[in-house]
Amino acid sequence: MTGSRGARLRVPSRLAAPAPGWTTRADVVVVGSGIAGLTAALRIDAAAPGLKVLVVTKDVLHAGSTQWAQGGIAAALGPGDTPAQHEHDTLVAGAGACDVEAVRTLVTEGPAAVHELIALGTRFDLHPDGELSLTREGGHLRDRIAHAGGDATGAEIQRALIAAVERAPQIEVIQHALAVDLLLAGDGGVAGLTLHVLGEGQRDGVGAVHAPAVVLASGGLGQVFSSSTNPAVATGDGTALAMRAGAVVRDLEFVQFHPTVMYLGPDSSGQQPLISEAVRGEGAFLVDWEGRRVMAGVHELADLAPRDVVAKAITRRMLETDRPHLMLDARHLGAEFWERRFPTILATCRAHGVDPATDLIPVAPAQHYASGGVATDLDGRTSVPGLYATGEVACSGVHGANRLASNSLLEGLVFSRRIAAVLPGELRAAQEPANQEPAGEAWLVPGSVRRELQAQMTRHVGVLRSDRGLRETLDRLGSLAGDHQGGSDGTPAPGVDAWETTNLLTVSAALAQAALLRTETRGSHWREDHPDRDPRVAGHVDAWLEDGVVHARWTPSPSTDPGDLIAAPDPLQPTGSPA
Q1: 438-451 pLDDT, tens per residue?
Q2: How confident is the model at residue 579 (pLDDT cuts 50, 70, 90)?
Q3: Which of 254, 290, 450, 475 has the smallest number of Cβ neighbours within 10 A?
């Protein structure tokens, strides 16, 4: 049995944009230049050197989320550790919503993928004996986090991947290119995509790339919320583009809020400084304004509990004490340790007037990671022929309801390698787009509504959610959309700000509907009106766009949480729908 719910919230079937002024061709277009995108490009090029691979990135090559990854990359690399133990920790963190086969794939193929990164030139931190220096983060029962430059792992991986791409001149790169919409062939499969390029000479403005395969590696949706650890480019473009092409997105309600993001004041918005979980892995702990340990007695792992547990505990204590933030105490680590292990975080804190060696660090939860995304199989295929997805834009099933710390870089690495292993052999014949301007109503909302959209999503679709708040948000999103739908006088001119904000609206509508459908608290999804995990609601929430209307449907599936299995009702008795 399935359940569905939601007002008929309309969003554009395509983005209003000028007709393409230039055209080029490729065999494969990779959208995004983080670990997922560059790994896909490099591996596809290695597997099939004759294919023309084009990488398009919204900013410059290094400007995505990968460079901001502080903690590291998780894999069973240390003595005594095994993929089975990594699988256990991932499933526990995922709170019964993981795909077991996807998790097994991740942890089994992960060690070899990390060693391949090392062979590519990534310089991870080592012990004096030359062995990898491994640390521990929340939810891990073993030291299995490889890191680089102390707390600059993402930046080092990004450096190595960019260097590898520069050594592969046959991979073409277009920077400052916003992916606008997919072009579809007559059979509904991929025929290419349209781009808006800034500063590329003959490729200025909107153009078209004709290609039979597109790999989405465009990152997350952090700018849906007022405060996020994500960079400004994370406006959900890939997710919205996929939905407009007919792809299914899955489990968008599972949005992870990092518990320890530096609090910069009530008026601060946009990307906020992350205080890595690795700091707590090295012994820091959370305290309230009275100096009391926040995580004492909350979880057996205390300050290293899974992120959803810590974020909820912080939020509860903030509400109880009517305080805008709590504090992280890492003073006992000492200045020398801070300078050696966390130089980047130390510099960031000092830039904001806090010295972690002598001061408490003000922290509060902020949006960090989207565990859901464009639904894929184990080889990155989506529901649209010729469209693949990998990294944070994808929902591979490995994260479930709550991503285990430092599994994100590994996911992009492993599943991009899997895409490269199958894509050349199943590459569709190139087809001309059925229509240079895809069917459907094209319109936009103005960039001026972005702050209101973000505030609404933060207020009611953030850490705390309820039926009333979610319905209010859907109503307000519908109003924002309705004010500009159908080419009325209020429709703004096409441009990056309007395209991004319209993408945020599309993703927000799907996210809020999915959160309304999941009538339980599970992992990073916290419903105040349904505070307990409900085994009858184990399963997925899929969302899609049809004729400009956002739809969502809950579909039951077996839980991976033993507690759910024990508590589950008699499967022979009808349970109805959570809708």
Answers
A1: 556 899 999 999 99
A2: very low
A3: 290
